[in-house]
From TrEMBL:
The lineage of its organism: Bacteria, Pseudomonadati, Acidobacteriota, Terriglobia, Terriglobales. It comes from Acidicapsa dinghuensis. This is PadR family transcriptional regulator. Residues 18-91 form the Transcription regulator PadR N-terminal domain. PANTHER family: PADR-FAMILY TRANSCRIPTIONAL REGULATOR, TRANSCRIPTIONAL REGULATOR RV3488.
Amino acid sequence: MIDRNDVVSPAGALPMLVLRVLQSGILHGYAIAQRIHVLSSEVLAVEEGLLYPTLQKMLRKGWVESEWGVSETNRQVRFYRLTREGRSQLKAELSSYDRITQAIQEVLRTA
């Protein structure tokens, strides 16, 4: 069982994670959060209060598109799909992440 204090909220990296998860296919919000949680070996937890405003921002920027549909639990939900602009943004986000990660590693090695 995971202690709630051991679960991390990926606030700064959330757009990148959402774009990457949507690269694999169309998902609704709850499924996006669950996929990130599962793929991170249950380390990352995406709270609704952070996810849905992020998705709205991504819609406005044209990184994702959405359409209403019915979930596997027979609920009316919004499904999100990555756009061409979203694919370009994901590439930029991954490049930036790699640069930052390398810089942090350099500081940790040499400090």
